[in-house]
Amino acid sequence: MDVGAGRLAPDVTATQEITRASVGLRSERGPILLSVMLSVGLVAIDATILATAVPSIVDDLGGFAQFPWLFSIYLLAQAVAVPVFGKFSDLAGRKRVMLIGVGLFVLGSILCGFAWSMPALIAFRALQGIGAGSVQPMAMTIIGDLYSVAERAKVQGYVASVWAASSVVGPTLGGVFVDFLNWRWIFFVNVPLGAVAAWMLVRKFVERVERKPHRIDYGGAALLVLGASLIILGLLEGGVLWPWVSVPGVGILATGLALLIAFGYVERRAAEPILPGRVFRSRLLNSTNAAALSIGVILIGLTSYVPLFVQGVLGRSALVAGFALAALTLGWPLAASVAGRIYLRIGFRRTALTGSVVVVAGAVLLALLSAASPVWQVAITCFVIGLGMGLSASPTLIAAQSSVEWEERGVVTGANLFARSMGSAVGIAVFGAIANSSLRAHGGGRLASTTSGIPVAVLDPALHKVFLASAVVAALLVAAILLMPNVSIHGRERSST
Questions:
Q1: 88-108 pLDDT tens trace
Q2: Which of 209, 320, 348, 476 is 20 to 30 Å apart from 249, CA to CA?
Q3: Phi-psi region of 393 (alpha: psi -120 to 50; beta: other; left: phi over 0)
């Protein structure tokens, strides 16, 4: 069989999409999917396991004022790495980039486990974040390569279920390590998981990449990384480490914007740009990326403020708050697993639009929560939003992937996930500003520092405003999906863009 650049191949049955001569005949989809899920599990568990160990880490290493950077630097590094690795995978192949990502993540984990100070731990968390920035887009891209349009939503539901399991396993495992072993084991546990995932990829994933010279856009990559880093840094820390209206508050965002503008000029002249102009000229890609950005905003609002509402307003434990939020990660994979059957019948746009309306309904329920609400109502609200996300996120991503050939699928997937990361950064900034403004107006201090001692009568309206803002963003998600062109299940537009 003739194979082109970077093409890969599972065994193809009559019910599968025979897209192109893209198959290495010895590839086996089941083991590859398992290795992808293990790789995603590394990132998913790490996202939840660290929070349980922060007190022990601070007791051991000190640096209480610096510990928020353990999360910020990881998010920052992950976000800026996503589009770069997405492009490199289109040049060098998925397997190589995925292995690099797993290797960087495991190396960062080992170094984190041996960290001797808080600054060292923060630096090694950045290395972990870079690795995660490869793993996540590669997981979605490999699924896009291996599975047909009809199969992808169900398979992405499997991957989403990894996040659901990790939301329970991560905190539990972290608590066990902290209580019975040492906080350093929350990082060392990644080593065997990463080794198994890498071994299965090496053994089972056969990818034939055509060797040809490439003109890598190093200048564009540098400008994108620096510009996006400054924008995300300014959004994450503005109003926390420095006032919004201050030299660093304005200067960092302005410099980041200037670098991104320069990036746009460089990309116009690059032979093989990191983000081709097609990504910005396509109505389909623009609308799906706008939807991803909205999803990122809503997700950060839920994961950051729903546990705070359950603990600070309803007066329940952190464990109960975690289980209430876990309903989101249960609804998402359930909806994603059936989304494939739905969009095969009614199309990507209608499926995603249905999901976005469900998200709006859930966001309205969220805004109606009060101090008298039972915890089960919070859980049901999160579950409804999760259902909507599963019906929105999967079809929009799959529509974007299906609109391009193999050579651009990594870029398109990376751009979509980058938009979601940017949405999270914007959401942190906007929701934090809304909550802190309300707290200051009621004399309740700052949400960014602590919530202990803030009366329920002050905290409840602050969080209510955040939930109202989430409902507004949910409406913007509907608008973004309404802008999607009508496309076939192969991602080809049926109407003019």
A1: 777 767 788 888 888 999 999
A2: 476
A3: alpha
Q: What is the number of other CB atoms lying within 10 angstroms of the CB of residue 65?
A: 10
Q: Which residues contact 220 (CB under 8 A, 6 or more apart)?
A: 263, 266, 267, 270, 273, 274, 275
Integer Cα distance of 419 and 436 in angstroms: 25
> pLDDT-derived band of residue 164, with 50, 70 and 90 as boundaries?
low
pLDDT band at 210 (very low <50, low <70, confident <90, very high): low
d(CA 492, CA 497): 11
What tens digit of pLDDT does each residue of 217-256 get?
677 778 877 887 888 778 777 776 778 788 888 888 899 8
Q: How far apart are the first and last CA of the chain?
A: 36
User: DSSP character for 238?
Assistant: B
Q: How confident is the model at residue 215 (pLDDT cuts 50, 70, 90)?
A: low
The pair phi, psi for residue 456, each rounded to 5°, is -60, -35
Q: Which distant-in-sequence residues (6+ apart) come within 8 Å of 236 by Cβ?
A: 72, 75, 76, 425, 428, 429
| Phi and psi at residue 238, to the nearest 5° | -60, 130
What number of helices (H) and strands (E) belong to the chain? 17, 2
Name residue 381's amino acid: T
Using only C-alpha atoms, the chain has a radius of gyration, in whole angstroms, of 22
Q: Using alpha carbons, select from 426, 396, 18, 475 the residue that is nearest to residue 10.
A: 18
Distance CA(327)–CA(306), nearest Å, equals 11
Q: Which residues contact 197 (CB under 8 A, 6 or more apart)?
A: 35, 36, 38, 39, 42, 102
Convert the pLDDT of each residue in 333-360 to its tens digit. 788 878 878 888 888 889 999 999 999 9
